[in-house]
Specification:
38% of the residues lie in helices and 17% in strands. By secondary structure, the chain is an alpha+beta fold.
Length: 285
């Protein structure tokens, strides 16, 4: 095995930024053992894993969050762009540093369980913290998409953040006034929403989350939706109604999402749309 150059980590991070990442960090592969379930840890996927390189970026722009069309809003994701950066890093680690590198795809091993939690990877790499709504928020850029590369290279490790990005200052002020936050108000669990929580000593504590309900709203035009409408179509005895189901807007958008536009997977961004930290804290005009 080749010796790792002294500036290898710095060079790798510079490459990631040049390739389009907004942020990049390195997590200790062993740190996943205390948080991730068996078979979903770096060493389970790549024997001898030492570190995990995590990149974030391609987050929605400020204009996306204020778009008036819900259909336009549903296509604002750009997750595939940051996945390309991850693939490039994996290639560089192997070709230039001489260590094994495994790009972690965004798919799932089974059901809804990912190969490796990219949110956990981002946390352990010091790139963000979990929000009251759930997604990882970066202190400077807010909501981001993530990509990770597991490697046997002993890169310099970044530690997790000590102060979370959530709650943002406007959320703490709102809690003092109304005992709620923007994300809790827009999707309250007790009123048919998905979220419940509170702030304690300025920190967010999520006390409730209806994952099944959230999943049906986020992944409306995805595999589950296609399976459901396909079953209804096959069971529909009326020919004209079958045609409506097949050629209707829902089936069309669903097929568009699962066959071509991966950016159309998630339709519900409400908790992130109203989150001050998710947009970054820069004032727009």
């Amino acid at each position: 095995m080749t010796e790792l150059p002294a500036n290898a980590t710095k060079r790798l991070k510079t490459m990631a930024i040049s390739a389009g990442a907004a942020v990049v960090g390195v997590a200790d592969a062993a740190a996943f053992d205390a948080h991730a379930p068996a078979r979903h840890r770096p060493a389970d996927l790549l024997p001898g894993a030492r570190t995990v390189v995590v990149v974030g970026g391609a987050q929605p722009r400020a204009g996306d969050w204020v778009a008036t069309s819900p259909w336009l809003l549903s296509t604002m994701g750009t997750t595939e762009r940051i996945q390309g950066v991850g693939r490039r890093l994996a290639q560089s680690i192997e070709s230039e540093l001489g260590y094994y590198a495994l790009y972690v795809p965004p798919g799932t091993a089974s059901g809804d369980t990912p190969f490796l939690s990219l949110m956990l990877a981002a946390e352990l790499a010091g790139l963000g913290s979990r929000s009251l709504a759930g997604p990882i928020l970066n202190r400077e850029h807010g909501f981001m998409y993530w990509s990770a590369v597991i490697t046997t290279a002993p890169l310099e490790v970044d530690g997790p953040e000590t102060a979370p990005a959530c709650p943002a200052p406007p959320c703490r002020e709102m809690w003092e006034r109304e005992h709620t936050t923007p994300c809790l108000r827009v999707c309250p669990l007790h009123e048919g929403g998905c979220l419940a929580g509170r702030l304690e000593d300025g920190r967010a504590v999520r006390t409730g989350y209806d994952a099944a309900r959230c999943n049906t709203r986020v992944h409306t035009h995805w595999v589950g939706g296609f399976q459901k409408v396909l079953e209804e179509t096959l069971n529909e005895p009326d020919r004209e109604k079958r045609k409506m189901l097949v050629y209707g807007d829902f089936m069309t958008r669903t097929l568009w999402a699962i066959t071509y536009s991966s950016t159309n997977i998630a339709q519900c961004f409400e908790c992130m749309r109203v989150c001050p930290a998710a947009h970054g804290l820069k004032e727009m005009r």
